[in-house]
Amino acid sequence: MADTIETATSLPPNPNPQPSWSLDDPVHPGFLVHGIDDTPGNKAYYIHLEAKPGKEDLVAGFLRDINEGVNKEPLTGPWFALRYSKTTFCIFETFPHAQARHDHDNGPGGHNFLRSELLKEMLAYPAQIYRLDVLHGKFGVMLGKTVAPTS
């Protein structure tokens, strides 16, 4: 039997490959949260954003707004806004513990996701927010540069 190699084009676009606005949560319109919370250890979010065709610049601006907010959050980071394709964007961000992730949710970066009308205008379906546990990481180098510890 031949080994099958998965590529970016053969994988589904995210862990929820058929999201739709019909699944939108009225408690927090514009996004769905997946995964467990409040376990010990380092935390992260992976957030998948699929722009409607022609709305890519709005999503890029939305990510800049979030970046400005997380720059004010001392326990959020590293933080990355990423682009996978013309319409597919994501955020990867880390936190030292679950409380820091909660602080981010209620802070200047996380509050951008309360802009539900903008989310509905620019996204093909609700943002998919995945709570993650950070198992391992390489620290001390960021984008090829040595990073000094902050403490």
Automatic annotation (TrEMBL):
SUPFAM superfamilies: Dimeric alpha+beta barrel. Residues 1-24 are annotated as: Disordered. InterPro entries: Dimeric_a/b-barrel. This is ABM domain-containing protein. Residues 1-11 have a biased composition (Polar residues). The lineage of its organism: Eukaryota, Fungi, Dikarya, Ascomycota, Pezizomycotina.
